[in-house]
Amino acid sequence: MATVELSLKLQASSGSKIKDFLNANLINILAAFLFLLLAFFLLYPIIAVLLKSFRGPSGFTLQYYQNFFSKNYYYQSLYNTLLLGVINTVVCLVIGFCLAYMTTRGPWILRKPLKIISLVPLIAPPYLFALSLIILFGRNGLITKMFDLHWQLYGFGGVVISQTLAFIPLAYMMIENTLMSLNPNLEESAYDMGASEATILRTITIPLLAPGLLKAALLIFVMTIAEFGNAAILGGRTPFLAPDTYTMITGESDFNMGSVLSVVMIAPCILIFFIHNYLLEGKQFTTIGGKPVASEPRKITPLIQVPFMIITTVAAGAIFVCFAVVFAASFYKILGVTHNIVLSNYLDFTSNQAIYNSIRVSFVAAVIGAIIGVLLAYVIVRGKFFGRTFIEMVSLSGFALPGTVLGIGYLLAFSAPPLKLTGGIMILALNCVFRFLAVGVEAGISKLHQIHIEIEEASADLGASFLTTFYKIVLPIMFPAFIAGFIYTFMTAIVSLSAVVFLVSPGFDLAAVKIFDAAVYGEIGIASATTMKLVLIVMICMLILNFISNKTRLGSSMKKSAAV
Amino acid sequence: MTTKGVTGDMDRKENEKPMLILKDIHKFYGNNEVLKGVSLEVRRGELVTFVGPSGCGKTTLLRLIGGFTDISAGDIILDGQRINDLPPNLRDTRICFQNYALFPHMTVAENVGYGLKINKWPKDKTAARVRELLEMVELDTFGDRMIDKLSGGQQQRVAFARALSLEPKVLLLDEPLSNLDANLRLVMREEIRKLQERLHITTVFVTHDQFEAMAISDRLVVMKDGLIEQVGTPIEIYERPANEFIAGFVGYVNFMEGRIESIDETTCNTVVNTEYGRLEITLEQDDVKTGDDVLMVIRPESVSLSLDCGDKSQNVLCGALKSYMYAGSIAKCTVTIGDRTMIIDQYNPRDAQQFQHADRVEVEIPRSVHLLKKK
Ligand SMILES: Nc1ncnc2c1ncn2[C@@H]1O[C@H](COP(=O)(O)OP(=O)(O)O)[C@@H](O)[C@H]1O
Ligand SMILES: [Mg+2]
């Protein structure tokens, strides 16, 4: 039998040497091609930023860095950004922890509603919160006028509040995930031995959660200091790195200083990336039989229950109010100033044009992103070549990279030949593709881990070529991951602001940029209506994603990669 | 006895009071009634085992006793005190979860000393007690190990030591041996039993393994679908099961149908009429009477097998030997009598050969057969 098979195979393979070589090396060729794409569209722009920060009119110089560290203004900007990051991270962790604790340990009836409210901000572009704060507390804000207050929303406080609300879901999801994977019997054992709720928290829950909490903290910190929209809309005279970079480029056309600011912003991200990878390696505690199970509600002592309830209620209430306010504001020219309900905001031509543009850009990004994501996942999981982990690292890094950096990077890299892309939708789409590649790749990887390589080998064994195997076996199995990558890229791209704000050309507005401009210029009605349209689009995407993940068991892996 | 005086009497009374009383306990999860009225008294120093198929509510019952789940109806009385509403940290019960639930971020000693620390024992007393406990479970050199550096059996010992650290009134063990491999399971169950008897600690043990249950317990509680089917010593449960389910659950059983023809009140000599003829047994139960339709519970090892020798004595049935499986300490024989198949265990079958080629055999039904009344 075996010899017959073998000779058949030999016969078949002697047919064409070239085809054979291709079959054997196609995966490597594919990997090389993908690596070139990554290098060109992800690494090169970043390097361009780095180079620009050192290159003066007469070659290499440290002058711009000197400039940065000698000027009080920049120093202040860095300080504000880091402080914002720290405060935001701490507050988000506390709120996220309280919410997650309540939805995993609290009374049954509270679990579902609290969970939904905690996750609701996911369907909103992050700057929705800045917008709603303006509507409530701005100069003409509802509450400002109602109580005749004289406070200043624009500044550090406003940014902290809007950022916190925007990052609650991320904190919540990550903490809930670790809390769910904690064997409830551990806490029950401590309870059994006489520990009070507070003692259990202090001696068991939090120590065991520490690696997960640290991970969440690092990620939230990185994402907050990079976040552009809230700081730009609400920052006022308070300098922050991300909006400063924007002003530096669009206002003063000073690419050198813009690059320096970007590098300063990347530095903590890279640092944290390494801490994350090397410090936390294998630090998760494992226990036997630790399958995720829902804990039964505990009789939580008032000492814990009251502060937790206050925090969760305030957070949940604030999220709810923000949505309600933006929704209401979308039906007035300026809510609180004009008094007749209008639909004109929804019919506004420029707004709809911007939405249309956004959909086009995001669609193109989603198609390309999903394809590259699936291929990358395949190469990373099945490939055996040198540098595989490097490719994995690079393709997952876009997520943690500040959007402003990639924005400037693309401006620097692609505004002149050989590849002049500026001014079209392609540069916007590609930017989104490589920024949001991580989730598509993660989904693909986890899907591939569900397939045994034997299936592919069996197919190859039967004489199928690499392409046939890929086409007939791998693609159908990967299809859910492809769709998930597609939708995820689409909905992330459509709300993203920080990078594209550098890349839009006059006359080609995107929805996010339109909202940003409208919010800055006080066109609250238009900004709100455009935001609501985006919320609707994202909501539909979420529903589709949910449907797919329920159908294909992709759910947990998607949730995980969305959270990581 | 009478000379002992008043205090002695009081002591005895105290000792006879049950340690744990479960009174008509019901538990609903939503509309799903998981426990449907469980009542039991557990005596001081006794090891009672709840045994039953998976999903019958054993873990739920332990969690109720431990206080982790609210009781829907009924009472739990611990040492004379109703503890329904006490949270676990105020109950003097200690639970060992099936997965041990050892704290992975602490050493062995810290795990064992956790309860002592929580209850604010002084440092030196804690250290001494931890040492004593670790010696007791033969882990005295392992105090500084982290939990994930222990084998399954060692983890089990740590969990046991931790549960015993504060000398609880009742120890609750939820399938403590189910994560161990077969050999270790036998060793550990003996150790647990020895320690339990030595410390005289009232213990509620839960398992789905009927053999483990019989080997370790003073009394067994057989459960099914949230109800207690029977309570009794291992012998009572095995020899005098209350119904078909229990008879089959605690071991293999051959049932034979019949009707009681007569019962001699003085000698208890009872004649049961079966389709294969009259069988005589000595009745040891009073829940059946003449004329009842009964099922005879015939255990495989209670039957003796011999080659056909023509002597038609009492209680002997003729059958055909269908298969003879030699398995070392026993041989399993399958005999058909009429259209019924009977499994018979032959112990230490040294003269096994003689049956290997036989086809007609005699089967002697013992006189001590238990009868189940048919409904
Ligand atoms: N927290 C819970 N919520 C809902 N149903 C439960 C819960 N815990 C157990 N049950 C149900 O109660 C029944 C008994 O479970 P359990 O006590 O774990 O059984 P056992 O330990 O005997 O295997 C099962 O049908 C199980 O599905
Ligand atoms: Mg159980």
What's the structural blueprint in terms of helices and strands?
The complex is a heterodimer of chains A (564) and B (375).
Chain A (H helix, E strand, L loop, with lengths): L1 H12 L3 H38 E2 L2 E2 L2 H8 L1 H34 L2 H12 L8 H10 L4 H5 L9 H25 L3 H9 L4 H30 L2 H6 L6 H11 L3 H25 L22 H28 L14 H4 L1 H34 L5 H10 L5 H12 L10 H11 L1 H14 L2 H9 L4 H30 L4 H4 L7 H10 L3 H29 L2 H9 L1
Antiparallel strand pairs in A: 1-2
Helix pairs in contact in A: 2-13, 2-16, 2-18, 3-13, 4-5, 4-8, 4-10, 4-14, 6-8, 6-14, 6-25, 8-10, 9-10, 10-13, 12-13, 13-18, 14-25, 16-17, 16-19, 16-20, 16-22, 16-24, 20-22, 20-26, 21-22, 22-25, 24-25
Chain B lengths: L4 H12 L3 E10 L2 E11 L4 E5 L6 H9 L6 E6 L2 E2 L10 E4 L11 H11 L4 H14 L15 H13 L5 E5 L7 H18 L2 E6 L2 H7 L2 E6 L2 E6 L1 H6 L4 H6 L4 E10 L5 E6 L2 E6 L10 E6 L5 E4 L8 E12 L2 E8 L2 E8 L5 H4 L3 E5 L5 E4 L2
Parallel strand pairs in B: 3-8, 3-9, 6-7, 7-8
Antiparallel strand pairs in B: 1-2, 1-4, 4-5, 9-10, 11-12, 11-14, 12-13, 14-20, 15-19, 16-17, 16-19, 17-18
Give structural notes.
The complex is a heterodimer of chains A (564) and B (375). With 564 residues, chain A is mainly α. Chain A has 26 helices and two strands. Chain A has two domains: 25-54 and 340-564, MetI-like (MetI-like fold), CATH 1.10.3720; 65-329, Orthogonal Bundle (MetI-like fold). Chain A has helices at 2-13, 17-54, 63-70, 72-105, 108-119, 128-137, 142-146, 156-180, 184-192, 197-226, 229-234, 241-251, 255-279, 302-329, 344-347, 349-382, 388-397, 403-414, 425-435, 437-450, 453-461, 466-495, 500-503, 511-520, 524-552, 555-563, and strands spanning 55-56, 59-60. Chain A has a two-stranded antiparallel ribbon. Chain A starts with a helix and ends with a helix. Chain B is an alpha+beta fold and 375 residues long. Chain B has two domains: 14-248, P-loop containing nucleotide triphosphate hydrolases (Rossmann fold, 3-Layer(aba) Sandwich); 255-373, RNA polymerase II/Efflux pump adaptor protein, barrel-sandwich hybrid domain (OB fold (Dihydrolipoamide Acetyltransferase, E2P)), CATH 2.40.50.100. Helix content of chain B is 27%, strand content 35%. Chain B is built from ten helices and 20 strands. Chain B has helices at 5-16, 58-66, 108-118, 123-136, 152-164, 182-199, 210-216, 234-239, 244-249, 353-356, and strands at 20-29, 32-42, 47-51, 73-78, 81-82, 93-96, 170-174, 202-207, 219-224, 227-232, 254-263, 269-274, 277-282, 293-298, 304-307, 316-327, 330-337, 340-347, 360-364, 370-373. In chain B, the strands form four sheets. A six-stranded mixed β-sheet of chain B has the order 6-7-8-3-9-10, with helices on both faces. Chain B has a five-stranded antiparallel β-sheet with strand order 13-12-11-14-20, with no helix packed on it. In chain B, strand 11 (254-263) and strand 12 form a beta hairpin. In chain B, helix 3 (108-118) packs across helix 4 and helix 3 (108-118) packs parallel to helix 5. The model of chain B is unreliable at 1-6 (pLDDT under 50). The A-B interface holds A 183, 185-186, 188-196, 199, 203-204, 207-208, 285-290, 296, 299 and B 63, 66-69, 87-90, 93-95, 97-105, 114-115, 118-119, 148, 152, 155, 162, 165-166, 179.
